[in-house]
Each structure stands twice: as C-alpha cells, then as structure tokens.
Design goal:
The protein is mainly α. The protein has three helices and no strands.
C-alpha cells in the first residue's frame, strides 16, 4: 500500500524561476485562503489516519500497522504546524494590541 504524498501548502512556490512573472498560488490566494487550505489538508490527513487505524483494528486484509502509524504521525505533525502558526498569529496580534499610539 503506497502512502499518500504530504501536501505542503505553506511552503510557497520554491520551484518557480526568479523573474518568471508568474505569481505563486500562495500569493494569489492570500493568507486566509492559504490557512483554510492548510486546515483542510490537515483534516484530510487526520481522516486518512483514522481510516487506516480502523482498518487495522478491524483486521482488514492488506491493512498495515506501519502505514497506520505513519499516517497518524503525519496527521500529528500537520496539526502541530497549524497550532504553531495559530500561536504566532495570536502572539503578533497581542503585540500589536499592546502597542501605544
């Protein structure tokens, strides 16, 4: 059973050539849309991990414990990344709100 690719929506367009004139998808979408896409990707990876774990628990043929563990770890890493971004955004907001004008 092949593992699905890990989506990296917050990585930007690292493969684009400089000066090509094409804007990356992250630049076109904006921060809110990129964040929503990241949340959707994390939700999808959590659902895939849950499905794999349920298949192992049910003893389905072809279900692999190692695959379930890898998918679970990927979902956890994605969730931790989303929480880290949220914490940074909250920290930046609090810093701005505490500034005196």
């Amino acid at each position: 059973m092949a593992l699905p690719a890990i989506p990296l929506p917050l990585a930007g367009n690292a493969g684009a050539e400089a000066g090509s004139g094409a804007a990356s998808s992250a630049e076109q979408q904006g921060f809110g849309a990129t964040l929503q896409q990241a949340l959707a990707d994390v939700s999808q990876s959590q659902a895939a991990a849950s499905t794999a774990e349920n298949a192992v628990a049910a003893g389905e043929p072809g279900a692999s414990t190692s695959t379930a563990l890898v998918l679970s770890d990927r979902a956890e890493i994605g969730w931790n990344a989303v929480v880290a971004v949220r914490n940074e955004v909250v920290s930046a907001y609090q810093t701005m709100m505490n500034m005196q004008i």
